[in-house]
Amino acid sequence: MTPGVPPQKMRITRDQLVLKRLVFEDVYIAANGQAEFVSHSGQTTPAPTTAEGERLDPAPEIAFLLPFLHEQAKTRDEFALLHDGIRYRVSIIRAQSQPWFVMRRAIRDVPALATFEGVQILEDSLLDAATRPGLVIATGQTGSGKTTFLSALLRHALERHGGVAVTIEDPPELRLEGQYPKGRCFQLSVPEPDFPTGLRRALRHRPRYILVGEVRSQPAAVAALQASVTGHAVLTTVHGGSVTQALMNLVAMAAPNGRTEMAWQRLAEALQGVIYLQRSPDRQAPRAQMLLLPGAASEEAIRARIRTGQLEGLRDEMEQTLARARRGMLPGLAGRGAPNLPRPSAGGRN
Predict the structure, then answer these.
(1) Three-state SS across the chain?
(2) The dihedral sign for the CA sequence 287, 289, 290, 295
(3) End-to-end CA distance of the chain
(4) Residue 7, pLDDT score
(5) Assuming Cys at both sites, which of 172, 236, 237, 290 could form a disulfide with 212, CB separation 3.0 to 4.6 Å?
(6) CATH 3.30.450 residue ranges for the chain
């Protein structure tokens, strides 16, 4: 499904199209047109400026978009919007007082994988994990860059190793579709409740990679785990404040009745890596901290602990992987200079 485009029923002049020039990350628009902009540092303001510090009035442009937003909200809680050459991801907050529309401006291009802090020294091991049959999870808080990271990882894998990729997203955020030197990517816009159906259809095309948008429900969690043990490389995002929390959240969604044994066993069989992403105001790019099972000194021991839901010690495993990488002991890292990286925190708790 292509992004929605507002119908041209209301007149607006070119001078009134200012959103693309303003510096912000999100804009919260109330049903009555009131708007609050959120900066990259998380501060809110009703009046953002351009990169040059110029103040522009976004009210006419927001009034122009509002009827379209209301129309889409009748049937959807999330959708893509293409406006004035910029792609936005729109989600609906159905607050008690009135609905709010949250518009997040998508970055124009998929960034290079190496732009994420902490990736360079483990890049080869990360790519090894992402190209093996199994499951790679990106986790972090809202706005930490999970989807952007997986998009960069998938593009890097297609460029280096080729193959066919299918993405199942609600809606697609970054443009990945098209021909690559050794492969091709197809992007599908699928509502999150229909992720299981989208996954089943994708499996029929025998792709090497399947990127699944954020898993937020029991059917989607079960489908992602099932797909990851059928010989495909499955990449997905799970909301979480740490590597451990992401794994616990995925299993809890996959087994809401509390009978988690099968979910833990399937996760232990399929998991190839978990990447915790954290963004802070003083960093340009998110910081990535990784639990990578391929090449880990105690890979089988990690899988055994996951199989029983015993996740203590994952932080130690991440530190040991970094130490081995600095000594050039991981596959493909011999001879590569090791930058001075911070010690992993696993996102707080183990």
Answers:
(1) CCCECCCCCCCCCHHHCCHHHECCCEEEEECCCCEEEECCCCCEECCCEECCCCECCCHHHHHHHHHHHHHHHCCCCEEEEEECCEEEEEEEEECCCCEEEEEEECCCCCCCHHHCECCHHHHHHHHHHHHCCEEEEEEECCCCCHHHHHHHHHHHHHHHHCEEEEEEECCCCCCCCEEECCEEEEEEECCHHHHHHHHHHHHHCCCCEEEECCCCCHHHHHHHHHHCCCCCEEEEEEECCCHHHHHHHHHHHHCCCCCCHHHHHHHHHHEEEEEEEECCCCCCCCEEEEEECCCCCCHHHHHHHHHCCCCCCHHHHHHHHHHHHHCCCCCCCCCCCCCCCCCCCCCCCC
(2) positive
(3) 39
(4) 57
(5) 236
(6) 14-105
Superfamily (CATH H level) for 113-326: P-loop containing nucleotide triphosphate hydrolases (3.40.50.300)
Ranges of CATH 3.40.50.300 domains, the chain: 113-326
* Model pLDDT for residues 256-307, shown as the tens digit of each residue: 788 899 999 999 999 999 999 998 666 667 889 999 998 788 899 999 999 9
Lowest mean pLDDT among 98-102, 157-161, 189-193, 234-238: 189-193
Asked if residue 293 lies in contact with residue 135, where contact means CB atoms within 8 angstroms, the answer is no
Instruction: Note the pTM of the prediction, 2 decimals.
Output: 0.77
What are the tokens at 285?
């790019």
Residue with tokens 């049959």: 133
The residue to which tokens 């699928």 are assigned: 190
- Check: CB of residue 46 under 8 Å from CB of residue 37: yes
Q: What distance in Å separates the CA atoms of residue 301 and residue 299, rounded to the nearest whole number?
A: 5
Q: For residue 11, give both structure tokens.
A: 């007149």
